[in-house]
Amino acid sequence: MSVKHDKKTPAMKKMLDEKVDQQMEDSFPASDPPSFSGGKHIVGAPKERESDAPTADHPAVKAAEKKVKRGDAAVPHTY
């Protein structure tokens, strides 16, 4: 079994550190928000919404389900 030893010179280490620093600078600000932002976030419709959420037997839901089964439903646009 052979063990590979790290034989980087101080100059090589400094150059690698500078590359990492430059990549970090080039990627700021990030294009995507962080996946977790902490805090007490509420998910879902606001309690004071003006209409009730449709139920499974609502005519609009039934019509949408039929479109999906027939293959007539609009395909979401992808970028």
Structure description:
With 79 residues, the protein is an all-alpha fold. The chain has helices at residues 10-26, 59-70. The longest helix has 17 residues, at 10-26. The radius of gyration is 27 Å and the shape is elongated. The model has no long low-confidence stretch (mean pLDDT 75).
Rough shape?
A: elongated
Spans where pLDDT lies below 50 across 5 or more residues? none
The assigned structural class equals mainly alpha
Helical residue percent? 25-40%
> Over the alpha carbons, how many angstroms does the gyration radius reach?
27 Å
Largest sheet features? none
Q: What count of helical segments does DSSP give? A: 2
Number of strands: 0
Give the N-terminus to C-terminus distance in angstroms.
Answer: 50 Å
- Oligomeric status: single chain
What's the mean pLDDT score? 75
Q: Secondary-structure element order, as H and E?
A: HH
- Strand content of the residues, in percent? under 5%
